[in-house]
Design brief:
Layout: E1 2-5, E2 12-15, E3 22-24, E4 30-35, E5 38-45, E6 60-63, E7 66-78, E8 81-90, E9 93-101, E10 104-111, E11 128-131, E12 134-153, E13 162-170, E14 173-179, E15 184-192, E16 197-199
Antiparallel strand pairs: 1-2, 3-4, 3-12, 4-5, 6-7, 6-16, 7-8, 7-12, 8-9, 9-10, 10-15, 11-12, 12-13, 13-14, 14-15
Bound molecules: zinc ion.
Zinc ion binds at residues 6, 8-9, 11, 25, 27-28, 30.
Length: 205
Protein backbone atom coordinates (compact mmCIF):
# COMPACT_ATOMS: atom_id res chain seq x y z
CA UNK A 1 0.00 0.00 0.00
CA UNK A 2 1.38 3.38 -1.03
CA UNK A 3 -0.20 6.70 -0.06
CA UNK A 4 -0.43 9.40 -2.73
CA UNK A 5 -2.68 12.35 -3.57
CA UNK A 6 -4.99 12.92 -6.52
CA UNK A 7 -3.13 15.32 -8.86
CA UNK A 8 -6.42 17.05 -9.73
CA UNK A 9 -8.10 17.65 -6.35
CA UNK A 10 -5.47 16.60 -3.80
CA UNK A 11 -7.62 13.92 -2.18
CA UNK A 12 -5.60 11.14 -0.54
CA UNK A 13 -5.35 7.89 -2.50
CA UNK A 14 -3.94 4.58 -1.34
CA UNK A 15 -2.41 2.55 -4.13
CA UNK A 16 -3.42 -0.99 -3.22
CA UNK A 17 -1.40 -3.24 -5.43
CA UNK A 18 2.11 -3.16 -6.86
CA UNK A 19 0.76 -3.71 -10.37
CA UNK A 20 -1.67 -0.76 -10.38
CA UNK A 21 -1.19 1.43 -13.44
CA UNK A 22 -4.38 3.49 -13.45
CA UNK A 23 -6.46 4.98 -10.63
CA UNK A 24 -9.75 6.83 -10.50
CA UNK A 25 -10.22 9.41 -7.75
CA UNK A 26 -13.18 8.62 -5.49
CA UNK A 27 -13.83 12.32 -4.99
CA UNK A 28 -13.45 14.09 -8.33
CA UNK A 29 -13.39 11.16 -10.75
CA UNK A 30 -10.06 12.15 -12.33
CA UNK A 31 -8.37 9.20 -14.03
CA UNK A 32 -4.60 9.22 -13.41
CA UNK A 33 -1.77 7.02 -14.62
CA UNK A 34 0.98 5.73 -12.36
CA UNK A 35 4.38 6.83 -13.62
CA UNK A 36 7.87 6.56 -12.16
CA UNK A 37 7.58 10.13 -10.92
CA UNK A 38 4.06 9.84 -9.47
CA UNK A 39 0.47 10.18 -10.60
CA UNK A 40 -0.10 11.78 -13.98
CA UNK A 41 -3.64 13.12 -14.57
CA UNK A 42 -5.17 12.17 -17.95
CA UNK A 43 -7.77 14.98 -18.00
CA UNK A 44 -10.49 12.37 -18.33
CA UNK A 45 -12.98 11.67 -15.61
CA UNK A 46 -14.93 8.52 -14.91
CA UNK A 47 -18.11 8.53 -12.90
CA UNK A 48 -20.47 5.62 -12.80
CA UNK A 49 -24.16 5.45 -12.22
CA UNK A 50 -24.31 2.87 -9.44
CA UNK A 51 -26.65 0.02 -10.18
CA UNK A 52 -27.54 -2.88 -7.89
CA UNK A 53 -24.80 -5.52 -7.78
CA UNK A 54 -23.48 -7.89 -5.14
CA UNK A 55 -19.97 -6.53 -5.88
CA UNK A 56 -18.36 -3.16 -5.14
CA UNK A 57 -14.83 -1.74 -5.16
CA UNK A 58 -12.88 -3.06 -2.12
CA UNK A 59 -15.31 -5.95 -1.61
CA UNK A 60 -13.67 -9.18 -0.48
CA UNK A 61 -15.01 -12.67 -0.75
CA UNK A 62 -14.48 -16.05 -2.32
CA UNK A 63 -14.81 -17.09 -5.94
CA UNK A 64 -14.98 -20.88 -6.21
CA UNK A 65 -13.36 -20.99 -2.77
CA UNK A 66 -10.47 -18.63 -3.61
CA UNK A 67 -10.19 -15.39 -1.65
CA UNK A 68 -10.37 -12.25 -3.78
CA UNK A 69 -10.47 -8.47 -3.49
CA UNK A 70 -12.25 -6.18 -5.97
CA UNK A 71 -9.75 -3.57 -7.17
CA UNK A 72 -11.84 -1.68 -9.71
CA UNK A 73 -14.19 -1.95 -12.62
CA UNK A 74 -14.94 -0.70 -16.09
CA UNK A 75 -18.35 -0.25 -17.67
CA UNK A 76 -18.77 -1.05 -21.35
CA UNK A 77 -21.70 0.20 -23.38
CA UNK A 78 -22.76 -1.67 -26.47
CA UNK A 79 -25.70 -1.79 -28.84
CA UNK A 80 -28.13 -3.54 -26.52
CA UNK A 81 -27.05 -2.15 -23.15
CA UNK A 82 -23.93 -2.42 -21.07
CA UNK A 83 -21.81 -4.79 -19.05
CA UNK A 84 -19.39 -4.28 -16.15
CA UNK A 85 -15.95 -5.84 -15.84
CA UNK A 86 -14.78 -6.18 -12.24
CA UNK A 87 -11.02 -6.46 -11.76
CA UNK A 88 -10.17 -9.01 -9.05
CA UNK A 89 -6.86 -9.83 -7.39
CA UNK A 90 -6.11 -13.08 -5.59
CA UNK A 91 -3.40 -13.92 -3.07
CA UNK A 92 -0.63 -15.75 -4.87
CA UNK A 93 -2.45 -16.07 -8.18
CA UNK A 94 -2.95 -14.11 -11.37
CA UNK A 95 -5.65 -11.43 -11.37
CA UNK A 96 -8.80 -11.84 -13.43
CA UNK A 97 -11.99 -10.24 -14.66
CA UNK A 98 -15.48 -10.99 -13.44
CA UNK A 99 -17.85 -9.86 -16.16
CA UNK A 100 -21.34 -9.00 -14.96
CA UNK A 101 -24.02 -8.81 -17.60
CA UNK A 102 -27.65 -8.53 -16.51
CA UNK A 103 -26.97 -10.31 -13.23
CA UNK A 104 -24.99 -13.22 -14.64
CA UNK A 105 -21.25 -13.60 -14.06
CA UNK A 106 -18.38 -15.02 -16.12
CA UNK A 107 -14.84 -15.20 -14.79
CA UNK A 108 -12.08 -14.59 -17.35
CA UNK A 109 -8.31 -14.71 -17.16
CA UNK A 110 -6.05 -13.16 -19.72
CA UNK A 111 -4.09 -15.62 -21.85
CA UNK A 112 -1.19 -15.19 -24.24
CA UNK A 113 -2.06 -14.85 -27.91
CA UNK A 114 0.41 -17.28 -29.40
CA UNK A 115 -0.61 -16.88 -33.03
CA UNK A 116 -1.93 -14.13 -35.25
CA UNK A 117 -5.69 -13.58 -35.39
CA UNK A 118 -7.78 -13.03 -38.49
CA UNK A 119 -8.65 -9.35 -39.00
CA UNK A 120 -11.65 -8.26 -36.88
CA UNK A 121 -13.64 -7.45 -40.04
CA UNK A 122 -13.13 -10.99 -41.33
CA UNK A 123 -14.51 -12.71 -38.21
CA UNK A 124 -18.11 -13.87 -38.80
CA UNK A 125 -20.68 -15.00 -36.25
CA UNK A 126 -21.36 -18.71 -36.81
CA UNK A 127 -17.88 -19.48 -38.11
CA UNK A 128 -15.05 -21.29 -36.35
CA UNK A 129 -11.63 -19.65 -36.21
CA UNK A 130 -8.31 -20.60 -34.64
CA UNK A 131 -7.35 -18.50 -31.60
CA UNK A 132 -4.05 -19.43 -29.90
CA UNK A 133 -4.31 -23.15 -30.79
CA UNK A 134 -7.98 -23.40 -29.88
CA UNK A 135 -10.84 -23.70 -32.35
CA UNK A 136 -13.35 -21.05 -31.35
CA UNK A 137 -16.97 -21.00 -32.50
CA UNK A 138 -17.97 -17.33 -32.80
CA UNK A 139 -21.26 -16.49 -31.09
CA UNK A 140 -21.20 -12.69 -30.94
CA UNK A 141 -19.33 -9.78 -32.45
CA UNK A 142 -19.69 -6.08 -31.81
CA UNK A 143 -18.34 -2.70 -30.85
CA UNK A 144 -18.40 -1.21 -27.38
CA UNK A 145 -17.24 1.92 -25.62
CA UNK A 146 -15.90 2.26 -22.11
CA UNK A 147 -18.28 4.76 -20.52
CA UNK A 148 -16.93 4.79 -16.99
CA UNK A 149 -14.85 3.18 -14.33
CA UNK A 150 -13.82 3.31 -10.72
CA UNK A 151 -11.10 2.04 -8.45
CA UNK A 152 -7.67 0.84 -9.57
CA UNK A 153 -6.58 -1.21 -12.55
CA UNK A 154 -3.38 -2.99 -13.51
CA UNK A 155 -3.28 -1.54 -17.01
CA UNK A 156 -4.50 1.53 -18.80
CA UNK A 157 -7.86 1.62 -20.54
CA UNK A 158 -9.26 5.11 -20.61
CA UNK A 159 -12.90 6.14 -20.41
CA UNK A 160 -14.17 6.95 -23.88
CA UNK A 161 -11.98 4.31 -25.49
CA UNK A 162 -13.70 2.15 -28.08
CA UNK A 163 -13.17 -1.57 -28.41
CA UNK A 164 -14.13 -4.14 -31.01
CA UNK A 165 -14.86 -7.55 -29.56
CA UNK A 166 -15.96 -11.02 -30.40
CA UNK A 167 -17.08 -13.81 -28.10
CA UNK A 168 -17.18 -17.52 -28.70
CA UNK A 169 -16.96 -20.98 -27.24
CA UNK A 170 -14.25 -23.62 -27.30
CA UNK A 171 -15.23 -26.85 -25.58
CA UNK A 172 -16.40 -25.86 -22.10
CA UNK A 173 -14.57 -22.54 -22.24
CA UNK A 174 -15.90 -19.14 -23.13
CA UNK A 175 -13.53 -17.03 -25.18
CA UNK A 176 -13.55 -13.26 -25.51
CA UNK A 177 -11.20 -11.17 -27.63
CA UNK A 178 -11.12 -7.38 -27.24
CA UNK A 179 -9.36 -5.14 -29.73
CA UNK A 180 -8.61 -1.79 -28.09
CA UNK A 181 -6.60 1.14 -29.44
CA UNK A 182 -3.25 -0.26 -28.33
CA UNK A 183 -3.63 -3.96 -27.82
CA UNK A 184 -5.56 -7.17 -28.27
CA UNK A 185 -6.72 -8.96 -25.13
CA UNK A 186 -7.45 -12.66 -25.30
CA UNK A 187 -9.53 -13.89 -22.38
CA UNK A 188 -10.65 -17.41 -21.53
CA UNK A 189 -13.32 -18.04 -18.93
CA UNK A 190 -16.16 -20.00 -17.41
CA UNK A 191 -19.63 -19.02 -16.29
CA UNK A 192 -19.95 -18.58 -12.51
CA UNK A 193 -22.96 -19.93 -10.66
CA UNK A 194 -24.40 -17.57 -8.04
CA UNK A 195 -23.42 -19.86 -5.15
CA UNK A 196 -19.77 -19.89 -6.38
CA UNK A 197 -19.46 -16.14 -5.76
CA UNK A 198 -19.58 -15.31 -2.06
CA UNK A 199 -19.10 -11.69 -1.00
CA UNK A 200 -18.07 -11.06 2.62
CA UNK A 201 -20.40 -9.09 4.83
CA UNK A 202 -19.14 -5.57 5.37
CA UNK A 203 -17.59 -5.11 8.79
CA UNK A 204 -19.06 -2.34 10.90
CA UNK A 205 -17.26 -1.28 14.04
ZN1 LIG B 1 -9.49 13.91 -7.23
Amino acid sequence: MKNMNCPACGAPMSIKHQFVKMVTCDFCGQVSLMTDSGLDPTGRTAKLVQLPSKLYVDATGKLKGKAFRVMGRLRYQYESGFWDEWFLTFDGDKPGWLVEDEGSFTFYMKQALTSALPAFEAVAVGSTIPVANQQVFITEKGRAQIIGGEGQLAFTVLPGERVNYFNGTSGNNLVSVEFSEDEIDYLVGRPIQHEELVVDEENYY
